Amino acid sequence: MGGHDAGSQHQFTGIARYFNSYTITGRRNCVLATYASLAAIFLFFKLKPKKQPAVTDK
Amino acid sequence: MTLSFFDQFMSPTLLGIPLIALALTLPWVLFPQPSTRWMNNRLLTLQNWFISRFTQQIFQPINLPGHKWALILTSLMLFLISLNMLGLLPYTFTPTTQLSLNMALAVPLWLATVIIGMRTQPTHALGHLLPEGTPTLLIPVLIIIETISLFIRPLALGVRLTANLTAGHLLIQLIATAAFVLLPIMPTTAILTSILLLLLTLLEVAVAMIQAYVFVLLLSLYLQENV
Questions:
Q1: ipTM score for this prediction
Q2: What's the predicted TM-score (pTM) here?
């Protein structure tokens, strides 16, 4: 829990270099990306214009 | 005045003056003040031994910057253990049965550990929300689960202490009432119930000490993660 990971032996390439679950920075980036995605989804649904029901003459 | 089983948990007042403040400051007078003598009396020696042993035990796995929490955590431990133990005496009020008190202790201390973690080592504090070696597909799920568990922590801390102590006191009262009521009707059953009551009281003494220790231990673990 309080120990530091030994991520030095992992050689990641590409996107895995920044987003992985082994190095501390990789884990941090995954967490931040997940929070950003959740915020984006929340904002998308909050700011989506609500469809007005069509008014028909009877 | 007819008493119900929950009257023991009502915050005591006298002519409108809340007595909980008195109940909270009572443990203070029970602890002897440390003196400057080279050799103290038995009680003070025992107290000093207990405090230093406890502090050593709790802070041994924590890094040096966390050691400035020694005073608050050790005094919190003494406070909780004395309140819990005093509450086991008949007709006493136990302040730690009040959720408001336990949440007031748990939330600020937990929040302090989180803020310290975010300020001094934000990468490590955020990295802790994802366990090492998680499979890729499980990463978002686990982050959400870990975030929820992070925010549940103060709630669990407060409710654990409240529920344990309230349940214990209520059980003692119920079984004592049962033993008292059964005495003229079924004396043998009443004696068995009294033996059960004795065992339960011993259990509650243990629970009182353990719950105080668990509260402080968990806070020290949260501190360990963030410091």
A1: 0.77
A2: 0.88
